Amino acid sequence: MRLILNAINGEFLRDITLNAVADTERVDAAVAYVSREDLLFDWCWKNDIPLRFWGRYDETVPVSPPILRRFLTRRSARYACTLVRRFHAKIIWWHGVGAYIGSANLSDRAWHSNVEAGSFYDEAELATLGLDAELREFFRVLDVNGSPLTEEIVVAIEARAKQLDRLRATDFADAKDAWANPHVKPWDGLVHTAKAATADRRRQAFLDEWNSAITLLRNLAVKLEEHRPTWVKDDAPSGAHVDQFLHAHYYNQVMEGGRSLYEERHQENLRDPDAAERKAMAWWKSLSSPPSLENRMLNEWAPFLRDALSPAGLRNRTEDHLFEIFKRVHSVADHARRIPNNRVGLPGTRQYSMDEKTRALARRLFQERSEGGADLFDLLQFVLHDGDPAETPMRLWEGLNAPKWKIDHVGRSALGEIVGWALPDRYPPRNSRTSKALRALGHPVAIY
């Protein structure tokens, strides 16, 4: 974590964007007041980085009307704007790099000359501290209570801005009318809610989203049974098969030039996901060879993981065994690749190989304990096997959130995928890439 205090300590927000192009997958920005789009919005547009922006709506016109107008004229699914009442946050999340939480609006003064105060957490810190889950919930609440930008809203805001230019001194009546805009969803803002009630809502939101996506995966797995390529063995579990179909589809049909176009594909396919699935499955079945090493995952790694994550396999509580699991779980190895060297005990700043980083992460996590004293093998045993398989999603939530079980660097994507490799007949593997692939096929899946 580092403090962003502008000239006070020489740390500026602009320095983050200057160094974040290569690793940023998308940007989520919830900033109440915006008067400059070149600070962040143009940067996203020019670098082909998807942007979701939430701004404040009130009678003072907190977001510059020309900036709102450009959201509409660009007509891009990768460039979305939502307006929210009772909203004063300043949060920017460069996914893959880290998040800023502080006081700076998107204005020239805020980024360059004002006395502002905020903190920047890199991706590893967000996961370690559980802030990634908190931020996802924050953006979800904004989505539920916000209004997607429309022509009607922009026209009303443009008219209001002209009124303010003329009537700054005698504005009370017009302000009341602007506040009552029927196109923007009414919301009284957040009121005090017991912490337990908030946790219950988060848990239910997690379970609803998880169950919805798992149903999509199960349905797709059934359809895929008639679309197996010749190189996929007959005994490959349906859950593993659907995961690798989505893996191939994502990296060969959704990724282009190092950028993920899942939101564009979503807009193309949302009216008929079934047609998009049929086209993708026909492509998959026609493949005479795996395009992205899917045969290794299906025919070699998946059987290994199923045995390694079984109750008998988890009794092999060694660092080497943990490494052999980690190197075969995509989301874990990808997290290891991104984590700073010093977080996993590696010296220097040189670029280590994927196996080196993954082994270092396994070494660290082998020694980690939850607040309740559980190690990683205890956590995996609890989530995967300690109870009715039908209640695995509930144990997954507990494993990710309960102090008794939660372990740093074991997040939703990693544990969700591990559940799938351990129990592929019931729960297909699920990570963030799975969600993006499903969304690209037109399904209304949230990206976490």
Name the shape in a single word.
globular
- Which percent range fits the helix content? 40-55%
Q: Assess the beta-strand content as a share of residues.
A: 5-15%
Series of H and E elements? EHEHEHEEEHEHHEHHHHEEHHHHHHHHHH
Main sheet: strands, sense, barrel = 8 strands, mixed
Which parts are unreliable, with pLDDT below 50 for 5 consecutive residues or more? none
In order across it, which strands form the biggest sheet? 1-7-6-5-2-3-4-8
Overall average pLDDT: 91
Strand and helix map with partners:
Layout: E1 2-4, H1 13-19, E2 27-31, H2 41-46, E3 51-56, H3 65-74, E4 79-84, E5 90-94, E6 98-102, H4 108-112, E7 118-122, H5 123-129, H6 131-145, E8 147-148, H7 151-166, H8 172-179, H9 195-224, H10 238-254, E9 255-256, E10 259-260, H11 262-269, H12 273-286, H13 294-308, H14 319-326, H15 330-338, H16 354-367, H17 376-385, H18 392-401, H19 412-422, H20 432-440
Parallel strand pairs: 2-3, 3-4
Antiparallel strand pairs: 1-7, 2-5, 4-8, 5-6, 6-7, 9-10
Describe the structure in your own words:
With 448 residues, this protein is of the alpha+beta class. The two termini are 22 Å apart. The protein has helices spanning 13-19, 41-46, 65-74, 108-112, 123-129, 131-145, 151-166, 172-179, 195-224, 238-254, 262-269, 273-286, 294-308, 319-326, 330-338, 354-367, 376-385, 392-401, 412-422, 432-440, and strands spanning 2-4, 27-31, 51-56, 79-84, 90-94, 98-102, 118-122, 147-148, 255-256, 259-260. Strands 1-7-6-5-2-3-4-8 form an eight-stranded mixed β-sheet, sandwiched between helices. The protein contains 20 helices and ten strands. Helix content is 51%, strand content 9%.
